User: Fold this.
Amino acid sequence: MHRAVLCLICLLALALVGSDHPFARAQTDERLVTTPAELEAAIADAEPGDVILMQDGVWKDIDILFDSSGLPDRPITLKAQTRGKVVISGSSSVQIAGDYLVVDGLYFKDGYSSRSLHLIEFRHGQKHANHSRLTNIVVSGFNKDPKKDTDDVWIGLFGTYNRVDHSLFLNKKPESSTLMIVWRATADANYHQIDHNYFRNINNDGWDGDAAIRIGDGQQALSASHTTVESNIFENMNGIGKIISLKSGGNLIRNNTFVNAQGSICIRQGNGNIIEGNFILPTTSTRYTGGILVMGSDTIIRNNYIQGVRTGGRSAIEVYDGHPDNTPGKGGYYPSKNISISNNTFVDNDKLFIIGQNYDVAQNIVVPVENISFKDNAVLGNGSKVPLMNILDRPINPEYDGNLFYNANFLGIEHIPGIRNADPQLKLGEDGLYYYAESSPLKNNIKSAPLKRTEVGPEWAKAEWGEFGIEDKPYVEQPFKDVNAVSIDETEISEIAPVTSKNYYSYIFGVIVIIAMGILLIAKKRTIRK
Assistant:
C-alpha cells in the first residue's frame, strides 16, 4: 500500500516538473553507432544528456551535421568510442549547430575538407552553435590541394560562448588559409575560449594575412569580441608576420608559449586588448621573428617574457602610427593611444622597441602614438649596437617609470627619467631561459613558467607523439649563450645614429638599390658567359 502511494507521488512529481527536468530520465542514454545512417538517426533522436559513441575505426568521406540542443548541465555529446581511435578521413567535414553540444576525441587524418571553406564549423546555415565545445581532437595534415584551393580554414567559430580545448593541430600546408578564425558578422561579443591546444608545424609560405588564429575582421574591428586565447603552445610556426592576429577588441591573450615561432602577436585592429604572461622564446631562424605588434587604443601589455628576437624579424615591441581617417573595412591603421607596457622581461633581443612604426607622410600614416607608458620593464641586452628604442615619429605624452635596461644601446634615451642603466639581475638557467635573482626589484615580473608540451593537447595523443613527430626536447637550442658575458662597447655606440623616419626609409631605399644592382650584375655575367 505504502509502495503504491510512493510510486503515485513520484509520477505526479515528474508530471509537475516536465519531461526535460534532470530527474525525468533515470540515466544518460549512451548509444553506439556504426554507420553514417545510424549516426544521423542518433543525432535526430538525441535528448539532453545523451552520449552518441562513434564506433572505433575509419569513417571515410563523411559529412557530420551535429544539429541538436542540450542543456547547461546535460549537454549532448558526440564522442569517439575510444578517443583517438575514430579516424575521420577522405573528403569530410563537421558542422556543429545548436546549444550545449560537445564533440570529443576524433582524429582527422589522410583527408581534406569537403566544404568550400571550413573543415569544422560552429554553424549550419544561419543556425550557430552556442555554449558548445570541441575537445580532445587531432587534426593532422588535413589539407586541401593548395594549387587548387587555398580556402582551407580548419576551425570556423561562430555563435557565442564556444570552446576549443586540449586539441592538437599540426602540419598545415603553406599557401592555405588561417587555421582558426573567429567570425563576427555583427558587433555582438562572442566570449569564445581557445585553451590548452598544441599548434605545431603550421606553415605559411608568403600570405601576409594568414595566421594560426584570427579573431574578427576589419568590418567589426571597433567592437569587442571578448575571446580568450590562453595556455596554448605554438611550435614551429613558419610564417611571415602573424601567429595570433586580432581584428577586434576586448580580447585576452594570456599565458601562451611560443617555441621556434616565426611571427608575432599582432593587434592589427581593435581596442582594449590585453596581452599578458606569454613566453616568446628564441627560434632557430632569424626570419620574421618578432614579439608584439600594436595598433589601436587602450592596449595592456604586461608580464610577458620575450627572448631571442633577431635582426631578420620584427622588434620585441612595435607600436604603429595611424591614419587620421581610417574607417571599418578600409584596411588602414587606426591610431595607437593609451598603451600600457609594464612588468615585461626582454632578454637577448637584437631589436627592442619601435615607436611610430609605418610613419609615412606620403601614405598619410601620420597620427603619432599618444599616451604610451613604459613601467617596470626589464631589458637584458646582448651587446647589440642597434639603438634600444627607435623612434620613427615622436610620441605624444610618453611616460617612463621604474624601467631597468642593461647592456644595450641607450642612444637617444640616455637622459629620460624612468629608464635606468642598471642590471635587472637576470641569470641564465639550465634550460636556456633567464630568471630573476631574489634580490631583483623586478622579480615579480615573471608570474608563471613556459607551458610544458605535456600540459596541452589531448591526453590520448601523448602516447602517439612518435607518430606526430613530437619530441619533448628543450625549448632553447644548446649551447646556451649567456648574454651577461657579452658587453657593449660604449665607445662605439655614439657613432650610430638613432633610426628616424628619414634615415629608416633611406636605408630601405639603399637596400633596394643594392639588390637591383646585384641582379643587373648577375644578368650581365650570364650574358657574357653565353
User: Anything to note?
Assistant: The first helix runs from residue 2 to 17. The helical segments are 2-17, 36-45, 465-468, 501-529. The first strand starts at residue 30 and ends at 33. Residues 226 and 251 are 5 Å apart (CA to CA).
